[in-house]
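Example for tutorial group B:
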C-alpha cells in the first residue's frame, strides 16, 4: 500500500537581524495622540478639581490641584530636564564634541510657539524653530529605532539610548514627554492651566503639531540602518503596519534616500505577545506592503519575527504565559548547570546520594 504523505510547509520569510544585547529600562506609555479619524475617537475625560470658574484662575497657585490643563511648573520642568539630559543622562545620544544647548533659549522657542495662542491654530510648522534649535546638528547613525504598537518594549530595549535611540530619547522630545500644554488667548498667563483640548475638530493638524513634526524630524535625522519594532499580534486583528500610524504617516516618508546621512537598510522586528494570537508574520499581509514601500524608496529590507533578544523582554513582562513557562524551565536547567555543573534533575539525584552518604542511609535507585 502506497501512502502519499504530503507535509504542508509554511514558507519562512523571517531573517536573522544582528541586534545589540539588551540593557533594560522602564517606560510604559506614549505621549503621542493617536492618528484615528476624529469620528472614531473615544474621549477619556478626567475629573478636574475646579475651585472657581474665573477665567483667570490659575490652579498652579494652589497646592496639589490636579487638572486637565497645562502642567504646572512647565518652564522649570523643561529647563531642568534639558540640563539633566545634557550633563547627566544622555551623553551617549549627543554627538561627541557638540556644544551644549542653551536650555533657556530652547524653552523660549517652545513657549513662543504656543503661549497666548489657541490650540486649534497650531499646525505642523508651529514648533519648527524649537526642533531646529534642539536637533539641528544631530544624526542618528545605525541606531534609530521606530515603533508602532510596541512603545513599552521598544523603549525598554532601547534603554534610553544605550542600545538604540527612539524619538523620545532625543532632547526635543525628552524635555516634554509626559507633559501637557496648551496656549490661551486673552489670558494673563498665556497658558490654559484648567483644560486643554483633546481634539480640534476644525483643524486635525493641530493635534499633530508637535508629535507629528517630532516624528518627521526624527526620521530625517536617521542614517545607515534603521530598526522598526512592530506588533504582529494586535488586538482585534489590527495590522502590524497601519496607514493611521505615526511610522506610516510621518516617519517612513521622511527617511533620507540621498546624501551623506542617508538610510541604507530598514530592519523590521515583528513581535508576537506571549499567549496572544499571531495576526501576521514577516512576508504576510500588511508587511508585504511595507516591504514594497521600503524597496521602492531604494532601501534594503530585512524582517525578523520575535528576535531572541526581545523574547526575553516580553517574557519578563508575561512571566506566566504558556510559551514563557517552557523557556523558564530550559533557562533554569541551563542556569543550574552554570551554578552546579549539572542539570536540575541530576542535581536532585546527587543531593540524595550525598544525603545517604552523610547519614548512612541506603537508597535504591
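The residue assignment follows.
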Amino acid at each position: 500500500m502506497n501512502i502519499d504523505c504530503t507535509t504542508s510547509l509554511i514558507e519562512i520569510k523571517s531573517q536573522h537581524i544582528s541586534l545589540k544585547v539588551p540593557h533594560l529600562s522602564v517606560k510604559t506609555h506614549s505621549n503621542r495622540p493617536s492618528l484615528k479619524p476624529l469620528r472614531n475617537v473615544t474621549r477619556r475625560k478626567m475629573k478636574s478639581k475646579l475651585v472657581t470658574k474665573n477665567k483667570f484662575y490659575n490652579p498652579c497657585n494652589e497646592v496639589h490641584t490636579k487638572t486637565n490643563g497645562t502642567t504646572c511648573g512647565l518652564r522649570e520642568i523643561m529647563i531642568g530636564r534639558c540640563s539633566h539630559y545634557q550633563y547627566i543622562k544622555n551623553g551617549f545620544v549627543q554627538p561627541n564634541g557638540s556644544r551644549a544647548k542653551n536650555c533657556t533659549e530652547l524653552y523660549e522657542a517652545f513657549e513662543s510657539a504656543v503661549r497666548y495662542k489657541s490650540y486649534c491654530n497650531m499646525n505642523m510648522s508651529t514648533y519648527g524653530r524649537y526642533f531646529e534649535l534642539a536637533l539641528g546638528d544631530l544624526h542618528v547613525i545605525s541606531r534609530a529605532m521606530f515603533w508602532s504598537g510596541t512603545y513599552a518594549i521598544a523603549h525598554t530595549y532601547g534603554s534610553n539610548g544605550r542600545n538604540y535611540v527612539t524619538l523620545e530619547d532625543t532632547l526635543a522630545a525628552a524635555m516634554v514627554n509626559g507633559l501637557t500644554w496648551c496656549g490661551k488667548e486673552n489670558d494673563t498667563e498665556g497658558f490654559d492651566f484648567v483644560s486643554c483640548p483633546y481634539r480640534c475638530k476644525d483643524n486635525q493638524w493641530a493635534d499633530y503639531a508637535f508629535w507629528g513634526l517630532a516624528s518627521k524630524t526624527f526620521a530625517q535625522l536617521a542614517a545607515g540602518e534603521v530598526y522598526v519594532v512592530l506588533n504582529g499580534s494586535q488586538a482585534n486583528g489590527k495590522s502590524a503596519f497601519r496607514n493611521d500610524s505615526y511610522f506610516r504617516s510621518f516617519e517612513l516618508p521622511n527617511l533620507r534616500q540621498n546624501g551623506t546621512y542617508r538610510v541604507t537598510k530598514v530592519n523590521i522586528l515583528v513581535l508576537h505577545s506571549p499567549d496572544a494570537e499571531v495576526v501576521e508574520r514577516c512576508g504576510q499581509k500588511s508587511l508585504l506592503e511595507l516591504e514594497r514601500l521600503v524597496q521602492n524608496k531604494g532601501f534594503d529590507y530585512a524582517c525578523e519575527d520575535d528576535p531572541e533578544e526581545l523574547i526575553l523582554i516580553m517574557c519578563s513582562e508575561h512571566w506566566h504565559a504558556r510559551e514563557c513557562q517552557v523557556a523558564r524551565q530550559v533557562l533554569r536547567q541551563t542556569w543550574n548547570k552554570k551554578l552546579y555543573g549539572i542539570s536540575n534533575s541530576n542535581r536532585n539525584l546527587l543531593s540524595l546520594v550525598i544525603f545517604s552518604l552523610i547519614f548512612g542511609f541506603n537508597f535504591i535507585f
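The longest helix spans residues 322-340. Compare this with the pattern of hydrophobic and polar residues in the output above.
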